[in-house]
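Need C-alpha cells for this chain, all 490 residues.
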Amino acid sequence: MNKWKLINLFLFQVGTLICQFVFILQILIAFVASCPELCSPCLNGDLFCDKPGLLEIPSLRNLIPQKVILQNQQFTNPVLGSSNFSNYRRITDLTIRSCNINKIRPYALTGLTHLRVVDFSDNTDLFIENNSFSSLNLQLLRLDNLGIIRLDLHAFNGLTVESLSIQNSNLLSLPFELVNPIANSLTKLFLKNNQLRSLDTRLRPVLLGLKFLELQENPFICNCSLLWLSEILENKRQNAKQPVFENQEDLYPRCVAPPELRKEYVYTLVKRLKNCVPPTIVQIDVVFHSLTSVGLNCNTKEQESGNELTEIGWFFSDNSTKLSGIWKKSIQVPLTKTVSKYKCKAQNALGNSEIYLLLTYNEAIKTNVIHTNKTFKSNHSPKKSGFLWEKVFSLFEMMCAIFGTLVITVILFFLLCCCYVERSQFLLMNKNKRKLQTKNYPSYERGIYSDTRIYCETDMDVCPFPPPPPPTPPPLPETRLIHKSIFQSM
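Here are the C-alpha cells for all 490 residues:
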C-alpha cells in the first residue's frame, strides 16, 4: 500500500508541474502573439520597434508595456493625436525617433498620467501645437536634432517638466509666453547649437532659478539687449555654490557679432558695455500729406546715434491696438474733426519711454497749408497746453528751486548791506575831516597862489593845530639912519 501511495503522489506532482509549464507556455505565447511584427519580443514590459516597416503606431491588445521605443519608421500619417495612444495609458517612457513625425496636435498625450520621459528627437520637421503636453508631469522632454522646430506660444500650457532639451533643432527664438507655464518646475534647460540671437528680458527670473543651463553654439549678437544675461552668467560663474556649467570655459556662450566682440564670452559684456541706457524720444514729426491724412514719425536718441536695438511702435490710447503693423516708427493716420489720441512707445532691453499726441482737424489749417510736389506741410503751430506752458516738475525739483532762490536772495541782500555800510562810513569820515579843517582855525595868506590849508613840517597831512605865527623882522641898524641923514644934508 505504501508503494502505491508513493507512486500516486509522484504522478500527482508530475502532473502539477506539467500543468504549470503549459500555463506559463500559454502566457508566453500570448505575449509573443500580441507583440507587433517588426518589434523585438515584448519582454520585461518594453515595446522596442527599430526595424523599418511599421506604417502606424502599433495598437496594443493584450500587451501593457511600460516603455515604448519606436524609431526608424515611416508612418503613413505623420500627425500624432490622442487616438494614437488610447492603449498606452500605463506607459512611463515614450520615444518616437526618426519616424517622420511633423505635427503633434492639441491634447495628443492627455491621459498618459504615468509618463515621465518623452522623446521626439531626430524627426525632420516638427510643429507642436497649443496644449500638446497638457496635464503631463515629466522628468524629461527631449526635442533634439530636429530639422526645424516650431512651437506655438502655448505649446507647454498645462505641462510640468523638470528638464527640457531642445538641441541642434534650429530654434530661432525662445518667447517668454512659451516658457512661462513651465517656469516653476523647470530646473534644467539645454539649448545648445540653435539659432538664438537674443533672449527675452522677461526670462531673467526663469534663468535665475535654473540649476543647469546650456547656451553654447548659438549666434548671439552681443549688445545692450543681452546685458542682463551677461550679469546672470557672470554672477553664477563667480559663485561656485550655484554653478551653471561644469566649470568649463568652453561651455559658456560666445558672441558672433559685432566684429569687435566676436568670439568673446557673453559674460564679459558686463565690463565691456558701459553706455547702455533706456530709450529717449527726442522728436515727433507730424507731416500733412493732405487735409484728410497725416503722417506720424517718432524719433529716438538711440536710433539717431545708429543704435537699432530700440523698438518703436504707435498705439491707440487704450494701449491694446497697434497701428500700421508691429513696432513701426512711421505711420499714416486719418485726420478727423474728433480728437484722436495716439501714443508713441520706444523700448529696449533696459526700459521704455512713451509720449502722447492729440490730433484733430481744424478749419484754420486750410489757410496755412503749403502745397509742394504732392505733399502738404502745415505752418500752423499747435496751441500750447499745460500748466503755464511748462513741463510738470516734481516736488523735489520745486523745493530745490525755492531753496536756491532763497539762498541767492539772502546773499545779494548781504552784499548790498555791506556796500551800504561801507559807503556810509566813507561819507561820514570825509564829513568829519572837513569839519576839523574849518572849525576855529584861521587861514594864513602866503601870497596870491599860496595854499590856505595848514601843513605840518614832517608830512603832507593836514595838521590838527595851527602853526606858530611868523617872527617879526628885526629893526634896521642906526647906521642906515646916519647915512641917510648925511645924504640928506648933502
